[in-house]
Amino acid sequence: MLHVPTEVQTGLKLQQIVMIDQSNEIMTAVGTIKLAWQDPKLAFSPDECNCQVKEYTENNFNQFLTETGGDWPDFTFFNQQGNRWALNRVVDVLPDGSVTYLERFSTNFQLNFDFSQYPFDVEDFYIHADMLYPEDRYVMVPMEGFSAIDPQHGEDEFILTDFDTSVTSVIASRVYPTSRFTFHFGAPRYQVYYFFRIFVPVLLIILISYITFFLKDFTRRIEVATGNVLLFIAFSWSLAEDYPRMGYLTFVDVIMAITFMVNTLVVIYNVYLKWLETHEKRETADRIDRVADWVYPIGYVVLIGATIAYFF
Amino acid sequence: MLHVPTEVQTGLKLQQIVMIDQSNEIMTAVGTIKLAWQDPKLAFSPDECNCQVKEYTENNFNQFLTETGGDWPDFTFFNQQGNRWALNRVVDVLPDGSVTYLERFSTNFQLNFDFSQYPFDVEDFYIHADMLYPEDRYVMVPMEGFSAIDPQHGEDEFILTDFDTSVTSVIASRVYPTSRFTFHFGAPRYQVYYFFRIFVPVLLIILISYITFFLKDFTRRIEVATGNVLLFIAFSWSLAEDYPRMGYLTFVDVIMAITFMVNTLVVIYNVYLKWLETHEKRETADRIDRVADWVYPIGYVVLIGATIAYFF
Amino acid sequence: MLHVPTEVQTGLKLQQIVMIDQSNEIMTAVGTIKLAWQDPKLAFSPDECNCQVKEYTENNFNQFLTETGGDWPDFTFFNQQGNRWALNRVVDVLPDGSVTYLERFSTNFQLNFDFSQYPFDVEDFYIHADMLYPEDRYVMVPMEGFSAIDPQHGEDEFILTDFDTSVTSVIASRVYPTSRFTFHFGAPRYQVYYFFRIFVPVLLIILISYITFFLKDFTRRIEVATGNVLLFIAFSWSLAEDYPRMGYLTFVDVIMAITFMVNTLVVIYNVYLKWLETHEKRETADRIDRVADWVYPIGYVVLIGATIAYFF
Amino acid sequence: MLHVPTEVQTGLKLQQIVMIDQSNEIMTAVGTIKLAWQDPKLAFSPDECNCQVKEYTENNFNQFLTETGGDWPDFTFFNQQGNRWALNRVVDVLPDGSVTYLERFSTNFQLNFDFSQYPFDVEDFYIHADMLYPEDRYVMVPMEGFSAIDPQHGEDEFILTDFDTSVTSVIASRVYPTSRFTFHFGAPRYQVYYFFRIFVPVLLIILISYITFFLKDFTRRIEVATGNVLLFIAFSWSLAEDYPRMGYLTFVDVIMAITFMVNTLVVIYNVYLKWLETHEKRETADRIDRVADWVYPIGYVVLIGATIAYFF
Amino acid sequence: MLHVPTEVQTGLKLQQIVMIDQSNEIMTAVGTIKLAWQDPKLAFSPDECNCQVKEYTENNFNQFLTETGGDWPDFTFFNQQGNRWALNRVVDVLPDGSVTYLERFSTNFQLNFDFSQYPFDVEDFYIHADMLYPEDRYVMVPMEGFSAIDPQHGEDEFILTDFDTSVTSVIASRVYPTSRFTFHFGAPRYQVYYFFRIFVPVLLIILISYITFFLKDFTRRIEVATGNVLLFIAFSWSLAEDYPRMGYLTFVDVIMAITFMVNTLVVIYNVYLKWLETHEKRETADRIDRVADWVYPIGYVVLIGATIAYFF
Fold it and tell me: Mind listing the pLDDT tens digit for each residue in A96-132?
């Protein structure tokens, strides 16, 4: 018996992004998935039931299952991580046997973020819906005009604009190939938050510590630079809570590492000047220091420039 | 067969606000929704069952579904985010076929806050109940005298007073228009908390740092101003936990940014005075400083005034 | 047909307080509710089933529902906030048709705390059980000798002693009056925690800052008082996490506000003394200061006394 | 009809301790409960079903309930606090009507800790399994050789060694006595954590502050002692998060209270010495101070010794 | 009747690691388990149903249970801790009675970590799937070519590479031996995080405190060393949140303990030098100090080297 696989038109509307837990890389979202296919076995005469359409909701979904004998394009979200709450399900069957399945769901999806350019990273979000039955029974096809990101999605941290959908053939949980529908969007972050909470404070602290170079008081400079090392360590720890413990440093980690190093060098440098001073070589100290007033800011700019060049 | 849509009277009583999670923009609430409609197919003779009313609760709700053949104005909350717990459901059917559906539910709703005037923002809260079936079958109508916010709602942060309800026609999850009942209220925040926890501390710190201007000790002033920059940075970070990471600055963010800048300028200014002093120009320093005693407070007032003017 | 409402004896045993989340005003608790009523329709002959009592548990509860036709005094907890987990349910029916319903549940209840006298506040806790059916069908009556607070309740923060129960007629979720059984208890807090964690530290800090008045070093005093302002601000922020963001100040907030103000005044006062000193009026400063040694502690006592008088 | 209660052999294996939430006094655990009893009504002929044993699992547990008519020793955990997840249930019935019920469960139990000797406290853990039916129907008996604590229990904070089981007759949720099986174990804490995280830091801080007594610089000592008061207050707050807000002080609280007091006395003492110095009585100060070098450490040892004597 | 146990081919694909909660030692994961066995009772003629394979999913799983009479190799995860969410289940039965069971699940597993070499520890992760029925009915056998760790597992902290599977015979919850399938993998941690967040900061702080040895200002050194003791205590507390409260010290704990001790010794040493100085033995102090410049770094290296030698 030759068997032509049934085509299942598939669309997905991402309606709400409830939460993005970046350190565990989980997105909780509410969406609606729509499947449309043709099943001659479900065709009926409108006279028979005195209706133009047969409609099944959550409350009588079992009746639909009985009528299909379980033979419908059941699916699963491949990168789902907990339970899937079906907020509601509606099935419409037309007399010619064309079926539409609509499900509004709330679930959480695995994300695989690449934080290396953080916080200037553009992250990819995927929702994978896999057919339960093999490709020789059901083949997915992207549905025209249904898939969308609702403008009311409620996400404030990432800038959601475009998306794309695709269908592939995968061997995931099963041993034979099944159809996979993928809803994907790439999103950068709003920069205001990071600019204001990270870069402005860091710049101000560096600026203030630079200004102390114009006070020819070496002890005070040692204190300020020591304080800054501790401050930047604390800063760096607090930033680390935003993402998982990874095998690589992010852009902002490297910027922080540079501030560690520069401030440690500043401490060593000023201890040396102080040592010169206590050994009555104040003049040598002053001569060296006149150079440092320029080397310090230029060094920072060069190091940060090199970091930017490396990461972007 | 011409088909007149059934009118569904809809009301909602908001009974408890369990929690408002502002950084994820989620409101967990307990409420009661009431639907009333006429279904001739459910009419019965009181003699038949020896009763004036047929009543169905959670325990025999399936019986109601069987009797209607699933044909009742089932609904979903459009901006619900997790599971909806039906605390109890009661259906009353009168002999003439008029039906009342009452459900007490506990669920969480998406909020879309605009924090820009925070903490003087007035936020809008919406509960959207959507019909599952199209408008040509069921059309919602606001019910008279049922909708309310229970005075025992238990919300302490927002001042809940008025509300309004409306019915619109939307194309949300489905492809044909469905009826949407919206329960909306706008609420400002109680100001005592923010006044006492944010503005009083900030004012006291600024006041204390201003007073040091009357001590003609430039080193001490540099220390105080440097300390204040760090303090305001910490303050600003702790405030940032109240709302999501957004693409804009709130009123209180800008106030904080002003304190950053002013204190950084104060550091630079005092380093300059100190520099004058060590170069034996103490008199010039004192002359300049006499002006600063006035410029400093006036500058603050002007900047904060401009911020208020911009935001409100 | 005249209809006499069935009397439902109602009792509640509060067995465990799992958690009291004060900032969201939620109490999670385990309890047992007992309902007893007479239903002639359920009377049976002991011979018929060869048993003295018919017993239904969770596993065959549906059978009980079938036998009553759903006609039993079903209830709901009015101030419940999430799901109600029925840990177990037992129904006993005697040959004369007297029925006892016992349910052990675990759920969370809304609290409406008044924190104004915090931490010396006495809070009221309510559990409201509402009948689902109107008063003309079932009327609740407090049961003798069942209601209790289990001595093993496990609550450590509040002192639970007495309780009372009452029955009222309310219009809550329904449109007709239903019977409400209320289990209420008022509880003060154990004071040891607050005494040791708040009042002792505050007193010690004030004491230490007072002692510096005996060191005639004005700069040092300015430093100490400035440090204390910051310390009390941090203290006050950390206390604020114990309760929601409200429209009023609590007793402990006002105490904190007083410490803010006094310390700010101390800063201003000492800057003035320092100014006198640098303008060679050290004697005037010393004369003024001798008065302050007495005014300072007396001022504190008076302010705190006035606060106590206002709040209690 | 005389009725002999059925004996129910009961055993419990504690397999995993998932979490012990000490500040809410909740233990989440996984265990297996085993019940064995004789029910002549379930006896069968092996030929009839061509089997030596009838086995029921979760999937056909309802069939077992039907065959017993709900008449089996159903139970509940008395100190359970949320839902009980039955990970699996297996019932074995032998031809002679002897039944074995095995259930692996995951649930959370209430604990009633006495923290007064914290962190040297030995806490008692209880799991209470109560029969649902009265003692005249089912009486529990401890089962030989089944109850155990799995060596793989996964608990790291408490040292679990011995346990005991017992059966008592209680009136808990019901009004007639029911059988209660109790699984109990007492467990002390591993001391390494507390030694290293609390006592070593406290000792080091006290040691360092003691050393400053050998520097005859009173101002510096005042600074150190003031800093220590604040440090110990912060320490004490952070420790308080480990247990609920209680009506009594723990051992470690009292140790902390002693450090508060001693350091406050040290501040007062040194202000007095400083006052002597500024009033040109440096010699008197030195003479007094020589005594303090000995009184200080001895005082600490005596106070801490007294605390230990009081608590243990 | 002689009874040969049925062989059950078992495989497991670990697809996502949702979260590893190290302080509670819990791993939440998504995986697929596959069981394959032969059941002659399920054999059928393809003509009978006009199909090559009988397929059961979640929606008609009960039908499969009915057809087997509950007689299938049901299993449980032995080290599971909460509920197991079956994301989907598919059963395929071929005409010859060979059955394949596929279940995608999401659940949490107990881990037993040995943190002693933390953060250079290699941890073992286990997933134990136990048969519910005894070994004389079902015996597991590892399935060829199915078990795997999905490269998209999403774990960032541990380096997952190899795994192994095995089958053992255990007496766990039951009293007779059952078959256990174990999926195991050992994983080290990515070192970048710990290197950058712990070892670099500690090294920098030690380096800076060492540099102060070249400033012959003993008071300043005392301050720095005292500050470092507090800093390292805070550091050590913050590290302690990564793992449970255990009965042993980890590698990083011991490193921290060494920094406590060394800094305390530095305080004592410098107080002694200061004492020498104030007693006009500055020369002795300087002579001693010249040695310390070398002893200090060498001491650190030796102590840390000994710690490494002990732990690895």
Answer: 999 999 999 999 999 989 999 999 999 999 999 999 8
Please tell me whether residues A145 and A234 are part of one structural domain: no
Nearest Cβ partner of D207 from E26, E236, E264?
A: E264
Test A204 with B174 for CB contact under 8 angstroms: no
Position B146 pLDDT exceeds 60 = yes
Predicted confidence (pLDDT) per residue in D17-27, tens digit = 999 999 889 99
Cβ neighbours of C157 in D, within 8 Å: 244-246
For residues D18 and D132, state if they share a domain. Answer: yes
Q: Where are the beta strands (DSSP E) in B207-277?
A: none
- Distance from C-alpha of B292 to C-alpha of B299, rounded to nearest angstrom: 10
Out of B57, B156, B201, name the one closest to residue C70 (CB).
Answer: B57
CA–CA separation, D164 and D168 (whole Å): 13
> How far apart are alpha carbons C211 and B211 in whole angstroms?
23
For residue C288, is it within any domain?
yes
Tell me if D2 sits within 8 A of D221, measured CB to CB: no
Q: Domain boundary at B129, B163, B188, which?
A: B188
Q: Which of E88, E204, E215 sits opposite A260 (nearest CB)?
A: E204
Same domain, C154 and C217: no
Q: Is residue C298 part of a domain?
A: yes
**8 Å CB contact between B31 and B105:** yes
In-domain check, residue B1: no
Tell whether D76 and D199 lie within a shared domain: no
Neighbours of chain B (3+ CB pairs under 8 A): A, C
User: Does the residue D1 lie in any domain?
Assistant: no
The verdict on a CB contact (< 8 Å) between E204 and A233 is: yes
Put residue A174 in one of left, alpha, beta given phi > 0 → left and psi -120 to 50 → alpha: beta
CA distance A151 to chain B (A): 11
D16–E79 C-beta distance less than 8 A: yes
**Reported confidence tier of residue C142, pLDDT bands at 50, 70, 90:** very high
Q: In this structure, are B281 and B302 located in the same domain?
A: yes
- Domain final residue, candidates C188, C203, C237: C188
Same-domain check for residues C168 and C207 = no
Place of tokens 């005070």: A220
- CA-based angle C108:C110:C113, to the nearest 5? 130
In chain C, how many domains are there?
2
Concatenating the DSSP letter of every residue in B182-212 gives EEEEEEEBPSHHHIIIIIHHHHHHHHHHHHG
Asked whether the ipTM of the predicted complex exceeds the cut of 0.90, the reply is: no
C-chain residues near B30 (CB < 8 A): 80-81, 110
Residue contact D13–E173, C-beta within 8 A: yes
* Residues D201, E275: C-beta atoms closer than 8 Å: no
E169 and E120, same structural domain?
yes
- The enclosing domain of A213 has a CATH number of 1.20.58.390
Domain carrying residue E198: 192-311
What are the tens digits of pLDDT across the range B34-70? 999 999 989 998 887 777 888 888 777 878 888 887 7
Range E164-173, long-range pairs (CB < 8 A, 24+ positions):
E165/E11, E165/E12, E166/E142, E167/E10, E167/E139, E167/E140, E167/E141, E167/E142, E169/E135, E170/E78, E170/E130, E172/D15, E172/E78, E172/E130, E173/D13, E173/D15, E173/D32, E173/D102, E173/D104, E173/E78, E173/E130
CB contact under 8 A, B83 and A60: no
Which residues contact residue B44 at a Cβ distance below 8 angstroms, ignoring those fewer than 6 apart?
B54, B93, B95, B97
A200 forms bridges with which residues in the sheet?
Answer: none
Structure tokens at C167: 């029955």
CATH number at residue E128: 2.70.170.10
A243 CA to centre of own chain: 10
Q: State whether B266 and B151 are in the same domain.
A: no
Closest partner residue to B271 among A32, A55, A215, by Cβ? A215
Is E154–A80 a contact, with Cβ atoms under 8 angstroms apart?
no
